[in-house]
Amino acid sequence: MSKWVYMFGGGRTEGRAGMKDLLGGKGANLAEMAAIGLPVPPGFTITTDVCTFYYANGRTYPAGLEDAIEAGVAHIASVMGASFGDRKQPLLLSVRSGARASMPGMMDTILNLGLNDDTVLGLIETSGDARFAWDSYRRFVQMYSDVVLGIGHHYFEELLEDLKADRGYILDTDLQAGDWKELLGSYKALVMKRSGAPFPDDPYDQLRGAIGAVFSSWMNQRAITYRRLHDIPEAWGTAVNVQAMVFGNMGSDCATGVAFTRDPSTGEDTFFGEYLVNAQGEDVVAGIRTPQHLTILGKQANQSDLPALEELMPDVFRQLDAIRRILEKHYRDMQDIEFTVQRGALWMLQTRTGKRTPAAALKIAVDLAREGLITREEAVMRVDPGQIDQLLHPMLDPRAIRDVLTTGLPASPGAASGKLVFTAADAEAWVRRGEKVILARVETSPEDIGGMHVAEGVLTSRGGMTSHAAVVARGMGRPCVAGAGAVRINVTDRVMTVLGREIREGDLLTLDGSTGQVIYGAVPMVRPDLGKDFSLLMEWADSIRRMGVRANAETPADARVARSFGAEGIGLCRTEHMFFEPGRIVHVRQMILARDEDGRRQALDLLRPYQRADFIEIFRIMHGLPVTIRLLDPPLHEFLPHTDADIQEVADSAGVDVRTVRQAIAQMAESNPMLGHRGCRLGITFPEIYAMQCQAIFEAAIEVPPKDAPSMVEVMIPLVATRRELELTKAIVDQAAKDVFARCGKTIPYKVGTMIELPRAALCAGDLADDAEFFSFGTNDLTQTALGISRDDAAHFMDAYHRHGVYAKDPFVSIDCEGVGELVKIATVRGRAAHPGLKVGVCGEHGGDPDSIDFFEGIGLDYVSCSPYRVPIARLAAARSACRRIGNGHKELADSTA
Ligand code: PEP
Ligand code: MG
């Protein structure tokens, strides 16, 4: 026969904390606290299996439940020395829901159950307080009628207000025992009128009704919505906890409170909590009375005049403080607790893992490991990479008021405020005169790099999570809100409208790149101090992880940030960004518009010294670590001028007229540039471009002294689909190396590898691996080409796709494991079969996404490469994935208790 009910308290506890699936979170923790000897009011838990049965059998209960409940009530009664329905020593009960995952406030609770016209007399006697007893009784009738009989609170509130008006009372506390008793009469009449039946007097009828209502509340709209938002399966069901009532509102020696065993905002090891004297649980959270602090320190820190529990009830406080330590040791984590003091006796009503800020999560994890309560692996598992992400960027002060205009995609985390500008040139000009700016564009192009670099933050009205703006902003660590569709930008008039509001150039704007909010005005910011705890956790993560973590960086500034965040090399240096620097773009344009190879060579000769200097600087910064340089990738027309002034400048420097330049621009237009003349196709059609880049790379590598040189120079070919493409372009690289080495009389080691970013390349990886010394998955393009979804246009429909559950997450953010991930897996297996030991990494945006990193760990990639600001996130995520795999029994955990 199944066991439907588990008792706890009074030396008879049947459940434990590990039984959350069956007993729910609250029930399991009540059992655990009772089992370790903490003062818990006795009770019993009706299991989630009963809930499952209830819904599977037309809302009926399994045979034997009724008897088990009666036994449970008898257990509570015997521990409390009271009896259910007894006139002298009435037992009163609370009935609460408790699912596996906490669903605060979503389901129903009933307190003071067991009261009727008889038992209230017993309560008057045992409490010695008639006012309290009648008030408790009417609270029960009101709560029960609402939850079980469906008669809304407001009907009862109206009756209470009428009575107060009639008597000239202002506060509820003005009511005397007789008033409450009289009100109760009206309450019961109301119940009779609205439900057509008298309020149930029999305590067992009351209990049956309450249990049914709690099970039913699993399917109320609030609970259904909450489950959908938090991915809680309906099949889990809820448990029901029936417990002896304890009262925090029986007089001035009573209290009720909530507390955290450590400070949930800072993580400091201080007891943090609030309480109210002579109150019931809901009064603390309702915010009607000002709660008092638990500790004298807390009271002082908050400049409160009200006495701390430590002063008012020192014995109770000492006992509670000891329980705080016991719970932390026992659960090995910070706890969120609820307690009640009845006539000087402390009762624990709840304990659960406490929610905390990212800063607190970090501090608590590191402190607990240092204190020896958890291992280093556990500490690493306790900090979510998303929390580290938040810590690395300035955040909006959570207390500040926000005038939110609209919400776009949270494309690059962190917050920024500045004056609104609409062009990259304006951004640069305004910053030169000392302003801080936010750059708003419909979408950005490589031309906007300068403006993006000086701006505090970037806003676009179009484009997805891997649009140019998003990728570049993340790379720069610049906050960015992308694809804010409600924003209409009018560059000509320097104004944007958002849902009817006009925002002009120079107006202050704040972006929250972590939530996608676009806010009017400047919101105050806070930047949490990372400090020693952060470095320590990262050290632990590094000692655990298997995969390498590199950075995508192309400027010296990015490379420095990457190194300071612990990058183990550069996994992707996108050389095209180097072409946009002032002084160069004009030569680039000259090169593109040249009529023949000679013209191109002349322009390339002018560019080579710049490229060489760039590489020298990056090599020095990355000394001792590998650097992967990708040859030119984007369609050339991205470099072409758009403004009249730029077109004129190019015409002048090339010695042609403006019309010729315009014609050339028109000729180069492509209808589908992402699938057009780009990547290795450029190297094949204009080999001199790749030759120039390689010459600069090898000259730079030879020029830096060995102690300042990278451990390996890796040249990478973009957008390869066929082996022949790789052969042709690799030949250019090898020839350039040969020429430079011969001329300088010196050689350096180098490798040539390919990006895998087209489905054909993934499928034919075995073929490519014959010629490639490494693979790096360009998962941005691979996602785009595998799913046939344009990187830059996805934002328009991704939201709808998400709502309809087409992709669980934006596939440009988190790898589509079944599709794109499968291609990565196939390519890795086939590549390594052909080329044993082939080094395989990822350099698309997914390289910085924790869920994708978990997938890459699972298929055994060698490293991930991500934007510099994500390097710590990737280090932590890679360590967590390794821990999970070790946890699955792949490898023994080293004994690393701190
Ligand atoms: C990619 O496609 O994933 C990649 C890294 O290259 P890019 O984003 O520069 O196209
Ligand atoms: Mg690519």
From TrEMBL:
Pfam families (UniProt xref): PEP-utilizers, PEP-utilizers_C, PPDK_N
Reactions the enzyme catalyzes: pyruvate + phosphate + ATP = phosphoenolpyruvate + AMP + diphosphate + H(+)
Recorded superkingdom: Bacteria
Binding site for Mg(2+): E757, D781
Matching Gene3D superfamilies: 1.20.80.30, ATP-grasp fold, A domain, ATP-grasp fold, B domain, Phosphoenolpyruvate-binding domains, Phosphohistidine domain, Pyruvate Phosphate Dikinase, domain 2
Binding-site residues for substrate, renumbered to this chain: R574, R630, E757, G778, T779, N780, D781
A single MF term (Gene Ontology): metal ion binding
Residues annotated as catalytic: H468, C843
PEP-utilising enzyme C-terminal domain residues: 534-881
Keyword tags: ATP-binding, Kinase, Magnesium, Metal-binding, Nucleotide-binding, Pyruvate, Transferase
Enzyme class: transferase
Chain ranges of the Pyruvate phosphate dikinase AMP/ATP-binding domain: 21-58, 65-299, 312-366
Entry EC no(s): 2.7.9.1
Cofactor: Mg(2+)
Domain PEP-utilising enzyme mobile residue range list: 435-516
The keyword Disulfide bond appears for this protein: no
Stated role: Catalyzes the reversible phosphorylation of pyruvate and phosphate.
Family per record: Belongs to the PEP-utilizing enzyme family.
Protein name: Pyruvate, phosphate dikinase
